[in-house]
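User: What would this chain look like folded?
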Amino acid sequence: RIEHLPHLGICLGNSGFGRNIVEYNEIRYVALEISDTSAINSWMEDPASHTEMEAERSGHLIRYNLITDVQGCVVDENCNLRPSPDGVHGIYLDNYTSNCFVYGNILVRCGYAFAVNMGKNNVIENNLIVDCNYGVRYSAFHSYAPQMYGFTMGNRFTRNIVYRANAEGHMYLLYDRIGELPLDQVIAQSDHNLFFDPAGGLYTFETRVGHGRASTAVDTEVYSLAEWRQRGFEARSLTGDPLFVDLGSGDYQLRPESPALELGFLPIDVGKIGIRQERS
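Assistant: Here's the prediction, encoded as structure tokens.
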């Protein structure tokens, strides 16, 4: 268990010996004194000499982690610390992190559940997202390495559950500062997901284009689920109650009649997550 930390919980870098495996961790109340970080953060190496588009990277395997209450922190105009959920993530694939398999994680009350920052060929599958402002954020450009524009491609978001009862935002966000990449290049697949807002809110998807950070983008489009399907995504995704066993007590196991199971979602064994029990 990793908890009550000022910065991130786990930090990953690129490994010349192969991928890192991060699994069965319980991480909560991290990023208490900082923003632009996450519970599990990954940085790949910077593009070589900042002059050319870099080669493929060995990705990480991030699976079966329980991540809760990552809300970030900023200093307001009165010099007080306050939460900043729009600047933190549950799992952050930053700086061209690529070829990762992110599977079977439970993320609760994080600003963004996932972020893919300029990376390619990442698979985010079979994860459970509860009360995060966004399910996933994609970013396709960074000014410090403009030669890498176009590197972002082939990312997949499939068979995930996105439940939003007490969060603001959209199902997910795509930020492309230049705005020239086709959506289906950045996102190769987004389908077989289950979305649910018990308050009856709209299921919306957002794209932003413009200079500066995503928060200062000058051209924003918000798509309904029907409009997003017309762009080629979520054709077989559903909206409906995932039917948790006991949401109020934090039991996110699914009842047998859950519609997520019809979409191919596989139940997550939470018994192995966190501190190991002593053997008698």
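The radius of gyration is 18 Å. If you want, I can go into more detail on any region.
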